[in-house]
Design goal:
mainly beta; about 220 residues; single chain; about 10% helix; two-stranded antiparallel ribbon
């Protein structure tokens, strides 16, 4: 994964973020997913999520992260937030404008309360089953493309929300393969796989991760 505390996956997306900026969605508004079906654990509030991008503004309470597709993400820091720079522990002072960063925490729309901030996340390798991230554009429809393997028993709106280390691993895998959006929840599916839900972009909205935390498929 990006973090030195977990086994790593591709961080090629981080390089793309730096160039570009210095798990149905629209910008900042989840569409479909939980609440639209008969899910076993419908989403009704903030959940585990994250994003990757470039730090484009710093304040006393947090910072702004701009993704590869231009989405602005408000990052709130807390006394419990931990920091890394590369593979080493760091202080909050590591957060400076122009640096690439991966943020993991609790997502509420386009705001993430950070549990962990990784500045200059190390580049690693990982899987991408195909397709390119399509940034959000008002009035434009996203792609209906489906790539890789979509779990045969997957039904949008079903599953159980996941948090903690398991969610972090799935989020990192999804962001590494498809950087540009904001992850606002991770759902455990009945077959041991995960759906990672993404907002702030027009494609992909659902990214599928297997038990080994490798991305196996994505769709709208």
């Amino acid at each position: 994964m990006f973090s030195s505390k977990r086994s790593r996956v591709i961080a090629a997306g981080v390089a793309a973020v730096v160039v570009a900026t210095v798990a149905a969605c629209s910008s900042g508004r989840p569409a479909g997913g939980f609440g639209s079906g008969s899910g076993s654990n419908a989403r009704s509030g903030p959940a585990a999520g994250g994003s990757v991008g470039t730090i484009t503004g710093v304040s006393s309470s947090g910072f702004t992260l701009t993704t590869a597709t231009g989405e602005k993400v408000t990052i709130k820091e807390a006394s419990s937030t931990t920091y890394e720079k590369g593979t080493s522990a760091a202080a909050s002072s590591a957060v400076t404008t122009g640096e690439p960063a991966l943020v993991l925490g609790t997502t509420d729309n386009t705001t993430i309360t950070a549990a962990q901030v990784i500045v200059q996340p190390p580049a690693t390798s990982g899987s991408n089953p195909g397709g390119q991230v399509i940034g959000f554009s008002t009035g434009e429809k996203g792609s209906t493309e489906k790539v890789g393997t979509i779990p045969s028993d997957y039904t949008q709106g079903q599953g159980t929300l996941v948090s903690g280390t398991t969610a972090d691993k799935a989020i990192e895998a999804a962001l590494a393969a498809y950087p540009g959006g904001i992850i606002d929840r991770v759902v455990a599916l009945g077959n041991g796989q995960y759906e990672v839900h993404c907002i702030g972009i027009n494609w992909p909205h659902h990214i599928f991760v297997n038990q080994d935390f490798k991305v196996i498929g994505a769709d709208d």
